[in-house]
Amino acid sequence: MPPKPRLGQNFLRDPQAIRRIVAALGDCAGRTVIEIGPGMGAITRELSAKAGKVLALEVDPELAASLSTEFTASAGGHTATGSNVEIETVDVLAFDFAAASIAAGSRIIVAGNLPYYITSPILLKIAENAAVLDRAVLMVQREVADRVTAAPGSRDYGLLSVTVQMHGPAEPLFTLPPSAFSPPPKVHSTVFRWRFAPRFAELEVNREEFLRFMRQVFALKRKTLANNLRAAGVESAAAIAALSSAGIDLKARAESQSIEALVRLWKSLQKAGATPSHEVVPAMQ
Question: Domain 5-198: what homologous superfamily?
């Protein structure tokens, strides 16, 4: 079955990489693993030998039908749900992770080779469901993985870094060349592991309000925090006072600040009744 470029289909064909991805998930015995974008089933087959159940989410009806046929046959002629692999034809952005967790009776494990063209929306969807997820091993474009796992002060640290890391630590595992896929993409891909442990309660911040604040302070790339705050509707004097109270240099950029420092800034603004009023939406850096 030829790949469909419009769906970002680049099928992993490196057997060693497939084994490493599944191994990075850890012990999956008796657990439900949701696979995002199974494609031709290369990772699915490896997962089926390790997990209690595999729920594979495939948006392409043709691929989903082919996989269902394969796993029905492997189950001895029973339905696809008669094996430990179930294929669901669905867009992951519309999938109900909470319902899947309830059905599984535990938090869900996630794996997937994410389509490059909708990587950020999928990561945000996963983050929104972090409370019902245990861990994930995901493959994305190398540049995206660099941003997801970046530390404060590095070139790649930005809004995406903070958004992901507020839902749990993320670490890069290994990088694959284009030759590991069919057809070969024009970029390298990196596999990273994400362990879900949301920090909002620990840091005593409201999730939606704090992430909105992050969009505001990272909105104007290469501008100082003070300038971003002013662009978001905070008066200059209030911005300066909040930065000083949070122990942040007045010329600092958001990219140089740890999550803890940004939380201090948010709380200082809240205490002063000077939280930003304008939504300035940046690209998911």
Answer: Vaccinia Virus protein VP39 (3.40.50.150)
